[in-house]
Amino acid sequence: MATVRELRRKPLGDLTVEDMRLLIRQDVGLAHLLPLAVEVLRGDPLAEGDMYEGDLLAAVLTRSPEIWSESPELGREVRLIVSELADVPPGLKREVEGFLAL
């Protein structure tokens, strides 16, 4: 929680992929962070924080379905990013399938 508290004080433009991953996993500032994360994912769908390849995508994909109904355009963009993945890493398959089933 101390890390999240520190990151909440950091300017959005200074957040790293790992910072975004941590905050998104904690459902902090999603209205601001999800668009930034999607921007990163457009350039690199498997952008990596400190955990594993695609960990930012996994954080985005596992947010509650309500988030995507509140931001349908953003959800469509994430669907497009996921659908264009040539090879989904095995560790992400469940998250991708879960998101696409929404």
General description of the model:
The structure is a single chain. The chain is an all-alpha fold and 102 residues long. It has one domain. 62% of the residues lie in helices and 0% in strands. It has 7 helices and no strands. Helix 2 crosses helix 3, helix 2 packs parallel to helix 4 and helix 3 packs parallel to helix 6. It is globular, with a radius of gyration of 13 Å. It starts with a helix and ends with a helix. The mean pLDDT is 94.
Lay out the secondary structure.
Elements: H1 2-8, H2 17-25, H3 30-43, H4 55-61, H5 65-70, H6 72-83, H7 93-100
State the distance separating the first and last CA atoms: 30 Å
The gross shape turns out to be globular
* Gyration radius from CA atoms, angstroms: 13 Å
The major pleated sheet works out as: none
Mean pLDDT metric: 94
How are helices and strands ordered from N to C? Answer: HHHHHHH
- The secondary structure category is mainly alpha
> Stretches where pLDDT falls below 50 for ≥5 residues?
none
Strand elements, count: 0
The number of helical runs is 7
- Proportion of beta-strand residues: under 5%
Helix content: 55-70%
Defining traits:
mainly alpha, globular, 102 residues, single chain
Short description:
This protein is mainly α and 102 residues long. Helix content is 62%, strand content 0%. α2 (17-25) crosses α3 (30-43) and α3 (30-43) packs parallel to α6 (72-83).
